[in-house]
Amino acid sequence: MQRRRAAANLRGMAEKTLFQKIMDRELPGEIIYEDDRCVALRDINPQAPTHVLIVPRKPIPSLDDLTEEDAPLVGHLFVVARKVAEQEGLDRGYRTVFNNGPDANQTVDHLHLHLLGGRRMGWPPG
Q1: Of 75, 76, 73, 43, whose CA–CA distance to 59 is shortest?
Q2: 86-119 pLDDT, tens per residue?
Q3: Which domain does 77 fall in, by range?
Q4: What's the CATH code of the domain at 69?
Q5: Is residue 76 among the annotated active site residues?
Q6: SS3 state of residue 51
Q7: Which one of 14, 28, 94, 101 has the minimum C-beta count within 10 Å?
Q8: Is residue 126, in this structure, part of any structural domain at all?
């Protein structure tokens, strides 16, 4: 696990992630919220009528790479999810999800919180 984290951290330092390029306006993306700590953008492959990604500006590769100092940032992502859900009119409910690693279908090595809503969610997920 440590080797994977070290490799991910080196990759993150060597080149920008897809999300960093969108935040820097080097690639297109529909940003619907932003502040000094994160951005929220529409997923290009939505799995629900509303599918928004809340992405920290700090390039943390995955949940496995979080440290105690990241706790306030992760809490902020959830506060932003609530704000965006309200902005999007998700008054009947919504789901938030972090995917972590290949078996969870994490496809970008940059932590991001999925906000899904606009339809009834099934259980169990996945």
Answers
A1: 73
A2: 999 999 999 999 999 999 999 999 999 999 999 9
A3: 2-117
A4: 3.30.428.10
A5: no
A6: strand
A7: 14
A8: no
Q: Are 56 and 38 in contact (CB under 8 A)?
A: yes
Q: Considering the domain boundaries, does residue 124 fall inside one?
A: no
| Nearest-angstrom CA–CA distance, 118 and 95 | 10
**Would you state the structure tokens that stand for residue 98, as one six-digit string?**
């972090």
* Cα gap 11→5, rounded to integer Å: 10
Count up the domains in the chain and report the number: 1
What pTM value is reported for the model?
0.87
Token pair belonging to 71: 């706790």
Question: In this structure, is residue 54 part of a structural domain?
Answer: yes
Which residues have a Cβ under 8 Å from the Cβ of 55 and sit 6 or more positions away?
19, 23, 38, 39, 40, 41, 110, 111, 112, 113
Residue 122 lies in a domain: no
Q: Cβ(56)–Cβ(121) under 8 Å?
A: no
- The catalytic residue among 51, 76, 110, 112 is 112
**DSSP secondary structure letter of residue 55:** E
